[in-house]
Structure prediction request, 360 residues.
Amino acid sequence: MAVVLLAAGLVLSCSQSDEKLPILSRREAVTKVVDGKSVTDSVYQTIPDFAFVSQYGDTVTAKAIANKIYVADFFFTSCPTICPKMKVQLKRVYETFKGNPDVMLLSHTIDPAHDSVAVLREFADNLGVSGRQWLFVTGDRETIYDIGQNSYMVTAQQDSSAPGGVVHSGAFILVDKQRHIRGIYDGTTQEGVDKLMNDINRLLAEYKS
Amino acid sequence: MTIRLGLYATLAGLLTLASCQSDEEIKRQKYITEGILLYKSNCANCHQADGKGVAALYPPLAGSDYLANKDKVICLIKYGLNGPIVVNGKRYNRPMPAQLQLSDLEVAEITTYIYNEWGKETGLTSVTAVTPILKACETNAQQNPAPASAP
Prediction:
């Protein structure tokens, strides 16, 4: 089966606030055989199923985000540079949408060797996060890097010259209920995250009515 | 860095020559201005621009009783800190990374800034005061390296 990647769907159509948010997921052409004929269809990539372990020690799969919109990010607890900023900003998002059953936050550690379940639990506690609306997940390193790079389109790689040994992007990724990426934001700045919160509200509005 | 230090020496020299204000006051203002910038780029991501810290993750500097241990603070700015500490009755236990790239002058400027802003000081912590303190804790850090981050 031939899967051809088309251009990344980064065409910014329009950004008026009453417009729908664009879908930023890559498009892929899928060729299927229907009634003996081969048919090529173009579909948006979706975030694939996953299985990680949360700060509470239980397995988190795509079931946890079913029928929710969520913000994903990649960090590690001992990161000295941008992660503290990202976590302070994501905490604002958490406080703003606390208790909203349609919104979740999913933070993936990119340093699973150090960030065990216990370490993530302590980090979340210290940040003042409880409950299951904001999950901090760990898992197999390759799997996390793979989903980060290939599905959420963020970069993360080991680099012993960088502080903390890993370079990674400070992006927050907004994902809709169909598991399409609808926005990518600079998680290290107030402005980037103000825009994210605005877009979360716009996306929530799309599901109303 | 050497160029920058040289520049400071020249600048300080000029300022001394041209001074009508007290030399000490000019130097203090220069330290504080530099200190603010250094604080923003090296410390504020954890301790926040307003010095209030982040929940139980990063302790506050604003109103911190820990600032009473000034020698310790000077050391931890450069050499980091490991193991549990208590700030204003609250326990923190998360490693603060060392920043070995900071020069003695930069440590003095940061110290001056945080003590003027949050330590109720109005004076200057000069580089000549900071250098021997950093020397002492450098030897200390080599003799008993800080423990790896506590579980």
Residues 23-42 of chain B form the longest helix (20 residues). Strands of chain B lie at 85-87, 90-92.
